[in-house]
Input
Amino acid sequence: MADERPPRNPFRNEADAFRVLMMFVVAGAIVVAVTLLTSPGVGLALALVLLAVGLWRAVGLIQTWRREGSAPRGPGEQG
Amino acid sequence: MESASVAHHHGPPEANQSSRIDRQTLGILLFIVSEIMLFGAFFASYFFIRVVANEGQPWPPEPFELPVTVAGMNTAILVSSSFTMHWALESVRAGNRRGMQMGLVTTLMLGATFLFIQMNEYVHIGFSARDDAFGSIFYGLTGLHGAHVFVGLCLLSVATIRSFKGHFGPKAEDHLGVEVPGIYWHFVDVMWIIVFTAVYII
Output
């Protein structure tokens, strides 16, 4: 069954922005741990991979907003 | 019919919307994109100095040393401030005015502590923005972020004062003055995680 929830938009809702922040905290922690355990070069490579994945996801999200509109329950509209 | 509807219309005409993304989203999206470009320019300079101009020398170049532990503690403080910001928003959504006030005050104090520690770091770090390209880009990147924290603290101060004056309510349209600074504060936090990881760790 398809997920019919509206696309989440971290630019319109603090709770969604907080979720994005948590993703960055986790990604940052992984990069820090890998860098400290291996070398800065490996950490940099991992950071670039995570950045590429993040950008890919962001582009997909923006395309979804353009197709379906962003979450209707923005800060000015949610009940 | 048309003249009747025009006669009953008050205020300015509806703004034309040519984009399929709604105005609020487009506005904040353009703001965040401009911020990403601003930080991106500084990061491009940083990595150019580090990779191209440094020519395989150790990083940071001798005799520069960065206080990684202090910066790590500062990172924890700033991340904690996002949790308290989220607590403030959850409280106002639940109608818990006291929780919102405490959340905002705690966020404000943690943010001010972050800025104070960063200024203290500048005082004791042992080099200035005039010392080599490394000094310039270090102060440029961390200072740019510090300026964003300062702006966030100004926004939070206004929200905190308003919260003690009895403003804001559980309905979304009644607490926009907390929600928007909250989104901005999380963005500032995200940028710090990137700055900290790139400058202090990698």
User: Anything to note?
Assistant: Chain B has one domain: 20-201. The interface with chain A takes residues 20-22, 24-25, 28-29, 32, 59, 79, 82, 85-86, 89-90, 171-173, 175-176, 178-180, 182-183, 186-187, 189-190, 193-194, 196-198, 201-202 of chain B (CB under 8 Å). The CA atoms of residues 115 and 146 of chain B lie 7 Å apart. Chain B has a mean pLDDT of 88.
